[in-house]
Design a protein that fits this description.
The protein is of the alpha+beta class and 245 residues long. It has helices spanning 2-22, 44-54, 97-108, 118-125, 141-155, 196-212, 218-237, and strands at residues 61-68, 74-80, 86-93, 132-139, 171-179, 182-189.
Amino acid sequence: MRSESRSILAIATLLTALAAGAAVAAENLEPEEGVFAGYLGPEPYELVLRRALLEDDHYRLCQLLVVPSFSQESVVYIVEGQDHSMTVVSRAVRKQLWASMLEEMKRTATSNSIRLDGAAQSIALEKIRAAVETHRTGLDGSTASMVLGLCRAVLLRTRYPETPSRGLDGTTYHAGHWIEGAFLAGHTWSPKAGTVTGDFVEMELALQSYADAPEGRRAPAKANLIAKARRLAESLKAPPAARGP
């Protein structure tokens, strides 16, 4: 318990220093999200997935929405209650929405090929029910504060890449974190181990495992979460050349 408390205190000190640096007035444009960003609007698939996974809660903290190529889409985030209690929410579609949409398109196709434009997606998605399974688990205040601080620190580092990072397969991660007056957001595709982004995703997945764990397995799941948070805190302090591959 003392080791856990020391780790949380050390991470809190690091986050205070990072927040001081982030407080400098921005001199450049900020990354934009929403309907005015990008050369295309949101796809119907994305809108249906958002409704299924996110719209139960508005002020989501430390969010990571996971879109794998070959398995179910899911999300994890934290919500704060009116009594300031913290609850971790883990939600997943029962059957991959993208695969269900493609199956419906193939079923009604009049040729050997299918279209993936917005109109075709909308027609297929109207016939699909995106059933979900949700787990909600409380998280103690000190651990939640540590995790939330790290999420905020990582999201405040969001930058546009010089070269695209997405591939055809793999997993896309959509991160988000509510702060007063704004929703910080960023995404990554199959990040490399040992990077800040890779360690951030590992912490978020540990948070999801904690929420999904049965009561008898919550203690080791929480210990794993704290270990991943420590690793991320170390990555945030280390220069890029010292972070591994």
